[in-house]
Amino acid sequence: MIAHQTLTAAQLEPYETYSECTIEATSLPGKVSDVTLDNCTLTGIWSQSEWLDCTFQNLNLANQDWNQAVLYRCHFQGCNLLGTNFSNGVWKTVRLTDCRADYANWSGAQLTACAAQTTSLREAYFRNVTFKRGFVATQCDLDQASFWESPLAGVDLSASTFEQLEVTPEAKYLRGLVLNAFQAATVLSLFGVRLK
To answer: For residues 8 and 171, what is the distance between their CA atoms, to the nearest angstrom?
Structure first.
């Protein structure tokens, strides 16, 4: 374990854990693999960076720019992702657990076999997102999250909560979306359907 150091992303060694370190973005898109970052501070712009098999624990990434970042088999655990920009990125088998991701933006992203658990995604943007092999949200707060113009086949929100959800009210976008009966009433109201 490496602790209390200031490093650049290029200095991160695979199969190492970094605790309470400051990690600075390099000027070129960086590639980082097989590291655990625990309670570290990430500075700079992380656009177009690439992360493979990494674990992010207790990080504050609020309002950071991760536009066009690529993440494969990564896990965000207990992180503050409030307002973080993940737009136009590529995520494969990425998990969010116990995170706060209100107002985070995944618009234009490609998400493959991703999941969120016990995570707040209030007013998060998933606009024009391509979901492949599903997206499962378990015990998440999705109130006022926006899935506008995102085909939702394989997206399972049935074990999460929301009072309002923004979706495109057309069959081609909603086909294959998994909801519970209470949530279905909310979505059906977009079509003018009233349930008694």
So the answer is: 47
Tokens of 89: 């990125």
Q: Name the helix (H) or strand (E) containing 90.
A: strand 90-92
Asked if 62 and 42 count as a contact pair (C-beta separation under 8 A), the reply is: no
Instruction: Give, in degrees to the nearest 5, the angle at Cα 14 between 60 and 22.
Output: 30
Q: What pLDDT is attached to residue 194? A: 64
Q: Which residue has the higher pLDDT, 171 or 159?
A: 159
118 touches 138 (CB < 8 A)? yes
- State pTM to two decimals: 0.92
pLDDT of residue 188 exceeding 80: no
CA dihedral 6, 43, 130, 173 (to 10 degrees): 140
* DSSP states of 134-175: EEEEEEEE-TTEEETT---TTEEEEEEE-S-EEE--SHHHHT
